[in-house]
């Protein structure tokens, strides 16, 4: 049982606590986050608690995965709130390192995953997935968990991490967890806090367009046509500025033309509302 | 004590054996090699046995670290001989995976270390150190050793691995081991077997030129002048075809001009004799 949350800030302390838990025969679950926790993160912790005996959560806004014009410095942070949420969710150990603890000197090492990291967000955010792969691998080396839990909201991130873990034989089970949504369908995201009331209202078109598309995702359908219908639906909202809408094979993220029975595809989209870029997706077996 | 050598070929088997040894409280030492073992490798095993309770050696000629015109296919292999040498040296577990076991599908993940991997062999062998960093990290994930042992013969490789381990917080102690030389001074290398009698004779100039240089490596000396003297010495041998001779700071591999007291520098060289490219170096504190 969870005896209450402990918070540590150094690599040495995490390792000490995890090593002790392992000596007690506990299976270690790991939930890496950038904080500003919401019910999506809580669902990852719940899954980790079902699967493991000791749950470590990291909160680290990783500068390596933000581009020069992205929202690293204004990314929302609220560690007091996060500690409460993490404790209530049943996290055993909260790891909140500073940037200096994680990167005490210039990082010369980069982990890159080609192909899966190239379409979708990889196009709009060059270098983003290198930053993700590098920090996730480093966190895995620090925490040395048995299993790690990732939301399917970041479906491409999940595909990149799964590929990295397979290629490098990283001894961590990667457990995908379904997207959590607000009651009205908006996919939960720490960035939703940026939205004005009007943007928030119009952003509902994302989940709605994905839902509408589901009926069209049938054997024999042309991915291009389904995609165009989604684009048209999103464009009914004047504040929506589409970055991409794509239908690809999942998890390889290779192109798809005519949908085939049994094929697994992802319908993925990224849309800006004002300064806020939101992503959403559905993974569907045809 | 060493109860005799066991050989395994799969990732699952290595993990099982290592996990058992860890449960018995043993400290795991790891010696990654490309086989065709010589006294240099044996010295790594000896160091590992002093430092650890259970020694794993891998033999894997890693295709990722060979360029298209390099000697991957003709790299010398003799697993029967290697098994004997490893057993006599006191290796507990020999891991000899096939290429298919290590890379069952196309590897999309690459680990790159900038700066330290760029000069010296990085210039002559583009992509080489990406291949080295990637396979070493993968082997570390497979074996999960407490310590790993590398020869200073491959000084740049060692610097790249040390940087990678630091940047990614890989939980493995990297232990450098001194170069082993034949009685006449030639640095031991699996590639020495390629040399004709005449090439072998002329190749002695490498260690001799490094030894001569030692007397000149004093505070106030100009690295450029010491380097030129080494080049002149090597060029006395007609079969010697210089790839590079460099003096750099170690382990950063940054340029150096006037040598300063207390500075650690490497004198590194790569020279071809016929089709055989040999490397040698001396690391000196001024």
TrEMBL record, chains A, B:
InterPro entries: Cyt_trans-like (IPR004821), Pantoate_ligase (IPR003721), Pantoate_ligase_C (IPR042176), Rossmann-like_a/b/a_fold (IPR014729). Pathway: Cofactor biosynthesis; (R)-pantothenate biosynthesis; (R)-pantothenate from (R)-pantoate and beta-alanine: step 1/1. Catalyzes the condensation of pantoate with beta-alanine in an ATP-dependent reaction via a pantoyl-adenylate intermediate. Beta-alanine binds at residue 65. The active site is at 41 (proton donor). CDD domains: PanC. ATP binds at residues 34-41, 151-154, 188-191. This is Pantothenate synthetase. Keywords: ATP-binding, Cytoplasm, Ligase, Nucleotide-binding, Pantothenate biosynthesis. GO terms for biological process: pantothenate biosynthetic process. The reaction proceeds by a bi uni uni bi ping pong mechanism. It is found in: Cytoplasm. Its EC number is 6.3.2.1. One of its GO terms (molecular function) is ATP binding. (R)-pantoate binds at residues 65, 157.
């Amino acid at each position: 049982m969870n005896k209450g949350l402990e918070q540590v800030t150094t690599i040495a302390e995490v390792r000490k606590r995890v090593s002790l838990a392992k000596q007690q025969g506990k299976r270690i679950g790991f939930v890496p986050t950038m904080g500003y926790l919401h019910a999506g993160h809580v669902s990852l912790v719940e899954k980790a608690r079902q699967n493991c005996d000791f749950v470590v959560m990291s909160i680290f806004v990783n500068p390596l995965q933000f581009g020069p014009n992205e929202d690293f410095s204004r990314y929302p942070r609220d560690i007091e709130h996060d500690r409460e949420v993490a404790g209530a969710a049943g996290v055993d150990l909260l790891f909140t390192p500073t940037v200096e603890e994680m990167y005490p000197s210039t990082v010369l090492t980069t982990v890159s995953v080609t192909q899966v990291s190239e379409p979708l967000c990889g196009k709009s955010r060059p270098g983003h997935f290198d930053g993700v792969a590098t920090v996730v691998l480093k966190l895995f080396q620090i925490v040395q968990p048995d299993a790690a839990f990732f939301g399917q909201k970041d479906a491409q991130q999940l595909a990149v991490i799964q590929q990295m873990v397979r290629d490098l034989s990283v001894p961590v089970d990667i457990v995908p967890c379904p997207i959590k949504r607000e009651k009205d369908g908006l996919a939960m995201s720490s960035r939703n806090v940026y939205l004005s009331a009007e943007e928030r209202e119009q952003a509902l078109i994302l989940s709605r367009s994905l839902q509408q598309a589901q009926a069209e995702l049938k054997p024999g359908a042309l991915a291009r046509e389904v995609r165009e219908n989604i684009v048209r639906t999103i464009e009914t909202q004047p504040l929506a500025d589409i970055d991409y809408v794509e239908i690809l094979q999942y998890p390889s993220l290779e192109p798809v033309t005519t949908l085939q029975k049994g094929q697994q595809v992802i319908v993925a989209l990224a849309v800006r509302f004002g300064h806020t870029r939101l992503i959403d997706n559905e993974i569907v077996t045809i």
